[in-house]
Amino acid sequence: MPIAPELIPKIKMVAPGTVLRRAPDDITMAEFGALIVFLDDIEEQENILQGGFFIGTGFSPEKLYELAKMDGAIILDESVARILAANVQLAPDPTLPTNETGMRHRAAERTARQTQKFVLTISRRRKVITLYYKNHKHQLKEINTLIARISQTVGTVERYKNDLDKKCLRIERDEFLDQVQLIQVTELLNDCVGIMNLLEEIDPYVIETGSEGHLLVLRLNSVREDVDTLARLFVKDYSFNALTDDDIAPVIEKLKSVKPADHEKIAGLLDWPSAAEATLHDINVRPRGYRLLKQMAKIPPGTADKVVDQFKDLVRLGMADEAALLEVEGIGEKRARSIVEGIQHMRNRIVYR
């Protein structure tokens, strides 16, 4: 079940490696239970909070652990800087809906619904940490199990990325043969957004691992950056109308909402005239050359725009020599040489692989 975006900041608050998480972990190990409510203004919720005693002291995991030995709720401010009160009894509206069965969890869910605030519970018997925020609920997974599941997904994402790289190389070959079909472009973008969507789905669970998932974050970010860059360059290379960098982000977001393998829709978002999927196999397309200029020659975006304005597409750019490139504003001898060498490198890679 997807995690509500509103819960993400709350999950970050209690992720491993945070100061707050130390206390729930210690409470769980000691087989205590706890009910923690995050409020900045106790007086505003005085109709719900009953009894207990005011503390008003600075927060520390050790203090929170000791206060959890009492039965009532502990009140923290929302920045987790101070412990405001302890041993407080919660009396939320009993008519508010809840699917919980235990008294602590029923009170927590109703309090979150009524106050629209963050409430956290720690189950004494099941040793489970549960988050409630507004109408949302999320139960934290056991960290080792969570990391194992995420690692499997990361492996899958990396395999998809390898397949994507192979497909990209095949398109590069056809680019220099001037034989790229529009269906190849839509298939590659379909694969790109599939990986992007999978990464977005797994992100909340990676956040839940906190400092324990550091290596997983590095691996995922590497894939994310490569796929995002590739998708942006393909959109800029193959859109029917020329797009600025600012135009590309909205197109990518729309592509993420397209159903898998809906190639006609993808072509439409690239502004190609409406055509049946079978027709996409018959439409030959030429890249403008942005991918080569960025990935092989390291040409900055503004200068790349001027090169494309001059040569129009990769086929014409591939026939240009250094002298022709030097006529473009912003292209000096070093950049002209890097473009020519980049083109030759791509040709060699195609010939010898």
Labels describing this entry:
8-stranded mixed sheet, alpha+beta, 11% strand
Q: What separation lies between the terminal Cα atoms?
A: 43 Å
- The shape, in one word, is elongated
Oligomer: single chain
Question: Which structural class best describes the helix and strand composition?
Answer: alpha+beta
Instruction: Count the beta strands.
Output: 8
**Spans with pLDDT under 50 lasting ≥5 residues?**
none
Helical residue percent band: 40-55%
Q: Kindly report the average pLDDT value.
A: 92
> H/E order of the elements?
HHEEEHEEHEEEHHHHHHHHHHH
- Rg, nearest Å: 28 Å
- Counted by DSSP, the helix tally is 15
How would you characterize the overall build of this protein?
The protein has helices at 8-13, 19-29, 61-67, 103-115, 143-176, 182-208, 214-238, 245-256, 263-269, 277-280, 290-296, 301-311, 314-318, 322-325, 333-352, and strands at residues 34-38, 49-50, 53-58, 73-76, 82-90, 118-122, 129-133, 136-139. The chain has 353 residues and is of the alpha+beta class. Strands 1, 2, 3, 4, 5, 6, 7 and 8 form an 8-stranded mixed β-sheet that branches. A hairpin with a 6-residue loop joins β6 and β7. α2 runs parallel beside α3 (61-67) and α5 (143-176) runs parallel beside α7. The protein is elongated. 31% of the residues are buried.
